[in-house]
Amino acid sequence: MLIMIRPSGEIALKSPRSRRNFEYTLITNIRNIIGEGKLWRSQGLIFLEINNDNINDLAQKLSKIFGIASFSPVIVTEFSNLQDIIDRAKQIFSDIVRGKIFAVRAKRVGYHNFTSLEVQRKVGEALFPFSKGVDLENPEIEIFIEIRNNLAYFYHENFKGPKGLPVGIAGKTVVLFSGGIDSPVATWMMMKRGAIPIILNFNLGGNVHKELVVNELNVIKKWSGGHKIKVFIVKGTDVLIKLSQIDRGNRVVMLKRIMYRVAERLSERVSAKSITTGESLSQVSSQTMVNLYVTEYGIKFPIFRPLIGFDKEEIVEVARKIGTYEYSIKLPEYCAISTKARTSVELNEILQQEEKVNLDYDKILENSEFIEI
Ligand SMILES: Nc1ncnc2c1ncn2[C@@H]1O[C@H](COP(=O)(O)OP(=O)(O)OP(=O)(O)O)[C@@H](O)[C@H]1O
């Protein structure tokens, strides 16, 4: 089976050099996920030739590879004149249009002594006797013919890809991953823009919490373009004990600040250039603008919050689509940190209390558990 893969439109707009890099990364990711077959680039498209004839199985996998806009199983023919194309189209599609209202769509690249419109008309005429009729506006089935120089590609199925950019082209980001609904979605959105996530989780609920995080990451892994996901699990309860020394109203922001600090250290170690969180503005008390300002004060990496303008319903919709929602809702309440924070903490107060708590962030990281998914 031959599959024509159309990269995201955004990739085509890049300079030739970037475009080549993006396409090569996409090819590597496809190879890692599919694990067999031959892949090559041709005029802005990617082709995959594979022995497996199960398109549904393949479509499941390709539809989760970022950087793919759409894909179609195609039949390719070399031709020397329009009649060759008409004959081949008849062979391929007469059964497929049987009893259906159809339309032919043709595209052409290169020099030919016929137009795309002529191809549509002539192939339409040839298939008409087998069909229930033609309707260009509302067909039951569409027949596509893409002519590129002396090759014609025939297909009638078009599967959607997830668009975005191939995972890997943007470098690494350390994701503060709670296991709740939001941070898995934030991870997915960063992957969609080409970032490789390095996961940092503060375990606040023992094995139950860990298992949940691992389950979610197994789902997310399906979208990673074959990249392994590195996970650092910090024993969050040790940090919580330290927090008992400070004001109750400041604890949530302080815990977040500690998470950012450890994420900062991890970013240095793994050469990530940003930190990602699942925060969205004003969602809970720790996510007011003031509290976000205080939380990230002095952190040397940019903090990316891809969900900042999303409301909960929109986040849930994405979580359901990617498949993490069913796990996230099982996260016990004690693993979330967003209870009872002051909506507006004082920066100086927090900085003083941070000194008092005096944590060794490197040590916290060194004592973390590392797994790879
Ligand atoms: N235990 C944790 N380990 C790592 N990061 C965390 C943890 N708890 C929270 N975070 C980070 O802080 C963000 C905000 O968490 P918070 O609990 O305040 O809100 P939330 O909206 O419930 O987020 P989520 O749905 O991701 O748990 C999370 O999206 C995540 O990036």
Quick rundown:
The protein has helices at residues 9-12, 16-34, 55-62, 82-93, 116-127, 182-192, 206-221, 236-243, 251-270, 289-296, 312-322, 325-328, 347-357, 361-366; strands at residues 2-7, 38-42, 45-49, 68-78, 101-109, 133-134, 141-148, 151-155, 159-163, 172-176, 196-203, 230-235, 275-276, 303-304, 369-372.
Shape: elongated
CATH class of the largest domain: Alpha Beta
The helix/strand order is EHHEEHEHEHEEEEEHEHEHHEHEHHHHE
Kindly state the percentage of residues in helix. 40-55%
Query: How many domain regions?
Result: 2
Helix-strand category:
alpha/beta
Major β-sheet annotation:
9 strands, mixed
What is the count of helical runs? 14
Small-molecule binders: adenosine-5'-triphosphate
Which regions are unreliable across 5 or more consecutive residues at pLDDT < 50? none
Question: What is the H level of CATH, i.e. the homologous superfamily of the largest domain?
Answer: HUPs
CATH level-two architecture of the largest domain? 3-Layer(aba) Sandwich
Rg (C-alpha, Å): 26 Å
Mean of residue pLDDT values: 95
The first-to-last residue Cα distance is 31 Å
CATH level-3 fold name of the largest domain: Rossmann fold
User: How many extended strands?
Assistant: 15
- The proportion of strand residues reads 15-25%
Subcellular location: Cytoplasm
GO cellular component, one term: cytosol
Pfam family, one: ThiI
Main location: cytoplasm
